[in-house]
Write the structure tokens for this entry.
Amino acid sequence: MVGELSTGIPALDRRLDGGLYPGDILALVAPPATQSQALLYQVMNERPTLYVSTLRPEESVQRDFDKHGGIDVSYRIETTGNNLTMEGELIHELTGSRTYTGNSAVKDDPLDDLYDFVESIERSINLIVDPANPLERGDSRDAYNETLSFLGAKLAETDSLGILLCHTSESQPPFRDLTLIAADVVWEVDVVSISKDDIEYQLRVPKNRGGTIITEDLSLDISNRTVTIDDSRAI
């Protein structure tokens, strides 16, 4: 086993006695209208990453990386559930648009895609799923639980780190409890206040299996390219 894996946020690493354990599954729980991806980018700059997008196309994810200033370490972007039939591809070639392929498009099961991506891991990396919500709203609770178990085993085998971005909503995904049960670490991000010049975020760590529990609420300073803990603010 390698040493603790850095979160990319030095002040948080210190509070966690070095970072996260190899093999950990981290559930990052946050509202969709927050800068939660900034925390993912911090982790991505620490080691190679397999970035699995469940909702947005690869081009959209890449644009976000570029706007952020680029990622310093190697990464690969994959998407789930977006394969089309040959008929759909032919219509796309003829029209130059996906608009007319709706009836002929056959989407893969995103769990099958994720399983294949996880199976391909051969070395210590980050595996990021952004977001986990579509998987948590799948057809089979057992299949999702089995995929989480396989993910945990593969991460432990390769000393990797798994991060599942879990957006909050009024209607919680039916399998969210399985995500939180499987997670070794849970981070909760919320907006505390919004002012003319500033948005104040709060980070809580209610679960850290086998690691240091952080009982305080941490104030996050999220800029365009960095995330820091603001010790000057009292929550």
Notes: The two ends are 36 Å apart (CA to CA). Helices lie at 10-15, 37-44, 58-68, 86-95, 110-119, 133-136, 141-158, 176-182. Residues 83-106 have pLDDT under 50 and may be disordered.
